[in-house]
Amino acid sequence: xxxxxxxxxxxxxxxxxGEASLMEKIKLGFHLFLCKKCGTYSKQNTVxxxxxxxxxxxxxxxxxxxxxxKKHLDKELKARM
Amino acid sequence: MSSTNKHIxxxxxxxxxxxxxxxxxxxxxxxxQDLAKDLVQDTFFAALxxxxxxxxxxxxxxxxxxxLKRKIIDHYRKINSAKGKAEVKMNFYTDGERExxxxxxxxxxxxxxxxxxxxxxxxxxxxxEKCINDLPEKYEMVxxxxxxxxxxxxxxxxxxxxxSSNLWVIIHRARTQLRKCMEDSWFKN
Lengths: 81, 189
Known about the structure:
Chain A has helices spanning 5-15, 22-34, 36-59, 67-80.
């Protein structure tokens, strides 16, 4: 039943993705009730998840190869045919 | 299946039809432009060599992607097994009677300015990007796939040949390291 801080924060991280099991969440809640350090971690983790989401939204635009890159690639490929 | 349903390969058109797709596929897994270009190039070269083995069961793109996937997993295995490469800093005691407890200097400090610090702006994004870039490669790759690209756990495990418990250990270490980095670079100054 009892988790150490390493295990508790690992579940806390998993929970940021909504993938912690019920049992894990119960154990985590119990640990957080007693441990102030992990309580701080857990609070900050929620803030960080929000930050990463924001970052993700700005980042996920499609990438393309430049014309030059393609030309170069084409030349290399043709040379091997 | 009649022979007309068989897919055929046309290497002359590969760059035009598939280069961007394969490049994007790589970048979403390995966030490094030069490396991504190399892997795409290697994929085309390997495909050319193996083109006589193509049976036409899958589409050209699917077949090229399967070759790329092998290149990516090879890369992951290489960075995973690299000896003497940077590891994440430990946050918890790993043995002795204090096993699993926070190491003193890694205990989360209180962020007094967190409310006004979560202004969603470019500077925040830059700070995050810098901290992610500082992670050892393996941690960076898995963290990005899970958090930024939002792949399913199962998909990442399958692609990289790791177990889900491996994945959560990597995510946990990446996030504790990132927390500290964000604390030092963003929330505390």
